[in-house]
Design a protein that fits this description.
Helices cover about 45% and strands about 20% of the residues. By secondary structure, it is an alpha/beta fold.
Length: about 140
């Protein structure tokens, strides 16, 4: 979807559009983000993912479902086996879900573009040796 050099944002479904919005926030801070859309989680496009991770050294996944057993897990497994890379996952953490409007749920689960951008900054910090406050 977009070629960048500082961090890779990997989305699926509606979250890919939110990744593109996060790119705008990151660009305002001088961060050049790569954005990948994964149309499926299985099979995962391992080659595309690994090429991007090789270029950026940092990956943030974004999905509007559980981060356990979903896109974030698939990305972590793929990269862990072939190319260890810092991976942070945006999505529903391991908890019971709540009901509400989509904007309320995105805010509650910290899945808005600003949250994706913050995770990207944190992941780049870890990559660069700064291990502070990673969620």
């Amino acid at each position: 979807m977009r070629l960048g050099s500082d961090v890779t944002l990997v989305g699926t479904g509606m979250m890919s559009a939110l990744c593109l919005k996060a790119v705008e926030l990151l660009a305002a801070q001088g961060v050049d983000a790569d954005v990948l859309h994964m149309g499926s989680i299985k099979p995962l496009d391992d080659d595309l993912l690994r090429k991007s991770a090789s270029r950026t050294g940092t990956v943030v996944t974004a999905e509007n479902a559980s981060v356990i057993g979903g896109l974030g897990s698939a990305v972590a497994e793929s990269l862990g086996e072939a190319q260890p890379t810092v991976v942070l996952r945006i999505g529903v953490k391991d908890r019971y879900v709540t009901s509400g409007r989509i904007d309320e749920l995105l805010a509650h689960h910290k899945m808005n573009p600003s949250d994706i951008a913050e995770a990207a900054r944190q992941a780049m910090g870890v990559r660069d040796g700064n291990f502070r406050n990673v969620h």
